[in-house]
Specification:
Blueprint (H helix, E strand, L loop, with lengths): L23 E3 L4 E3 L4 H4 L14 H11 L1 E4 L7 E4 L5 H59 L6 H35 L3 H11 L4 H21 L7 H47 L3 H35 L23 H26 L6 H7 L4 E6 L8 H4 L4 H16 L7 E6 L6 H14 L4 E5 L7 H5 L8 H5 L5 H4 L8 E4 L8 H5 L2 H13 L2 E5 L8 H5 L5 E7 L9 H9 L5 E9 L19
Parallel strand pairs: 5-11, 6-9, 6-10, 7-8, 7-9, 10-11
Antiparallel strand pairs: 1-2, 3-4
Helix pairs in contact: 3-8, 4-5, 4-7, 4-8, 5-6, 6-7, 12-13
Protein name: non-specific protein-tyrosine kinase
Keywords: ATP-binding, Kinase, Nucleotide-binding, Transferase, Tyrosine-protein kinase
EC number: 2.7.10.2
Length: about 625
């Protein structure tokens, strides 16, 4: 659990043990103790409680998602941390622990830098101390073996100069190495390492001190701003530009100082060579004595210098503190729940309850391309509205016989009354039915209206002129191969042989008969006009089931024989753009011809504006 490492995968793992609070639960794959806290004990008693064992990575991700870090004000270096959760005390502990860990980690980072400096000085002291011991031992041995106590005045003066120059050279080399270390850190964009190296070196250069201090301050400002800003932030980009400019200026200054140090080192080397040449002319004993003393003095000076730096580094490490502070401990910002907020939820619920249905209806009205209501027909077309037919389902053929007390039967009665009213008189006997396309219930409407007219006592004949796709014979159970209109128009049989009598009184059926190859030519024959004229004299109503307008053009031929045209539109099926055919057909009406629109297939239960009609069968006693 501490590392998140997967040790083993278990396919079937189940725990079903009863333990008391505080009792150890031990299983082959899990060992734990459940200890209720005071906050849990104070909760109301319930039948069951549960807890979740989270994966460390998942838990870290959850808290990262809830944590909000933002400055108290623009460009401020004080940050406000906020976390939301169902248990306030848990979030408070998380924020306090997070900040304590953050401050501790900052101190650890600073101590790590100081420790590296201290370790480096310690290693150098060990090396210099060893060199010092060897040089002092060599000097003592030389004096003892040669019996020398002091050298001459000239030798002392030369050795003193060499010692001074060697000391200057050593300090200059150390300073040059410091310049190179700082320059290398700057070139690798490690500003913190450059500042740390310069501080631990102890080189006195006010100009570089000020420049490095400015760089450290700019770097700190950028780190504070980067917590709440992204890389596109203008202030962050300005700080990056200033940091880059300061770093380049430091690199140029350090480069010049290194070159100046090299020139000074070359001059000191030349001077040392000149003095050593002069000393070489001294007696050998004095020369060796001077050399040993010089080495001993130089090692002693280096040792004292490193011991001083070691003391400074140890003091800095002992007194190191973090510059990150916790201003206020985490606390509950508000006693009211952050969520859910009852008033907002109620308001959203009311708005959603009003807007969603309204939006759905508006969207459906905008996107629906089919006819939705009778009012829509009245708005789009100028043709009078005859009525509407209820949805009877796909299996119903003759509604009056199969569903005598249904809404669809009552709707046919209502349309029959309206039809008798508009088709009253001897010049209103031939009624043609058509539609825009197949599947709109044209044949269903004309067969059922013909049956209603016949049952009301009117002698009615139904002629099926749709000889390309005949279906009327199936409504009455006739044989589709029986002689019909096509046989009569071809002269293959007489009218008496072509007509058929169903079980409905006063109703005669002239089906399409065998499907011909020249349906259009048959309807254009004079024999068709003679047939309509004879039937007009013999029957009260002649119902013509014509083909759809949108598929074939037969109805434009039959239109010359009809007195009344009924255009059938199917509810939520007929496309709105097909209603233009109604207007076109209305313009073709001549004389006393009339055109009416009939809406078929209306579901009274699912359509709100017709819902009150779903109980209309109640009135069909």
């Amino acid at each position: 659990m501490r590392t998140g490492t997967v040790l083993e995968t278990i396919d079937d793992f189940t725990i079903n043990e009863v333990v008391r609070p505080g009792q150890l639960l031990r299983t082959p794959h899990l060992t734990l103790t459940i200890t209720p806290t005071d906050s849990v004990r104070s909760l109301p008693k319930v039948a069951k409680r549960y807890f979740v064992i989270n994966h460390p990575d998942a838990l870290v991700g959850e808290y990262q998602g809830k944590l909000i870090v933002e400055p108290t004000e623009r460009f401020a270096r004080v940050l406000r941390l906020t976390s939301k959760g169902s248990v306030a005390s848990k979030e408070t502990r998380f924020l306090n622990t997070l900040m304590e860990t953050y401050v501790l980690n900052d101190l650890v980072d600073k101590n790590r830098k100081g420790s590296k400096t201290f370790e480096f000085i310690e290693s150098q002291i060990t090396k210099v101390a060893d060199s010092l011991r060897r040089s002092e031992a060599a000097l003592a041995s030389f004096r003892a073996s040669r019996g020398m106590v002091d050298v001459g005045v000239q030798s002392s003066s030369g050795i003193g100069k060499i010692s001074e120059l060697e000391s200057q050279k050593a300090q200059l080399l150390a300073t040059r190495r410091t310049y190179e270390s700082v320059l290398s850190a700057l070139r690798t964009n490690s500003s913190e390492e450059a500042v740390s190296t310069w501080a631990s070196a102890g080189v006195n250069d006010p100009v570089l001190d000020n420049q490095l201090s400015d760089l450290a301050q700019l770097t700190s400002q950028r780190a504070g701003l980067a917590v709440s800003a992204n890389d596109d932030n203008p202030v962050l980009q300005a700080l990056d530009s200033r940091i880059q400019s300061r770093r380049q200026s430091l690199q140029r200054s350090l480069g010049g100082l290194i070159r100046s140090s090299d020139a000074t080192l070359a001059d000191i080397t030349n001077r040392l060579a000149s003095i050593k040449t002069a000393i070489n002319q001294m007696p050998e004993n004095e020369r060796q004595m001077a050399r040993l003393r010089t080495q001993s003095t130089l090692n002693d000076q280096n040792y004292n210098f490193l011991m001083q730096k070691r003391t400074e580094a140890a003091l800095m490490l002992a007194t190191n503190v973090s510059d990150k502070k916790i201003v206020d401990r985490a606390q509950l910002s508000d006693s009211t729940p952050e969520s859910p907020k009852g008033k907002q939820l109620y308001m959203f619920a009311v708005l959603a309850g009003l807007m969603l249905p309204a939006g759905f209806l508006l969207l459906r009205d905008r996107t629906a391309q089919t006819v939705q209501s009778a009012d829509e027909l009245k708005r789009v077309t100028n043709a009078p509205f005859l009525g509407l037919i209820a949805d009877a389902g796909r299996k119903i053929r003759l509604a009056r016989m199969e569903m005598p007390r249904s809404a669809v039967t009552e709707s046919f009665r209502t349309v029959r009354v309206n039809l008798q009213y508009v088709a009253a008189g001897p010049d209103r006997r031939v009624i043609g039915f058509t539609s825009s396309t197949s599947g709109e219930g044209k044949t269903f409407c004309c067969t059922n209206l013909a049956a209603e007219l016949a049952l009301s006592g009117k002698r009615t004949i139904l002629i099926e002129t749709d000889m390309r796709k005949p279906t009327v014979a199936g409504y009455f159970g006739f044989d589709s191969r029986h002689a019909g209109l096509s046989s009569y128009l071809n002269g293959e049989c007489s009218l008496a042989e072509a007509i058929q009598q169903p079980d409905i009184p006063n109703l005669t059926i002239l089906a399409a008969g065998p499907i011909p190859e020249n349906a259009l030519e048959l309807l254009e024959m004079p024999r068709m006009a003679t047939l309509i004229a004879e039937l007009r004299k013999s029957y009260d109503y002649v119902i013509v089931d014509a083909p759809p307008l949108g598929l074939v053009s037969e109805y434009y031929i039959l239109n010359q024989y009809t007195d009344v045209t009924i255009f059938v539109v199917r509810h939520r099926y007929t496309q709105r753009n097909m209603l233009s055919q109604v207007q076109d057909l209305a313009q073709r009406q001549t004389g006393n011809q009339q055109l009416y629109v009939l809406l078929n297939g209306v579901n009274f239960s699912s359509t709100y504006e017709y819902r009150y009609k779903r109980e209309s069968a109640y009135y069909t006693a």
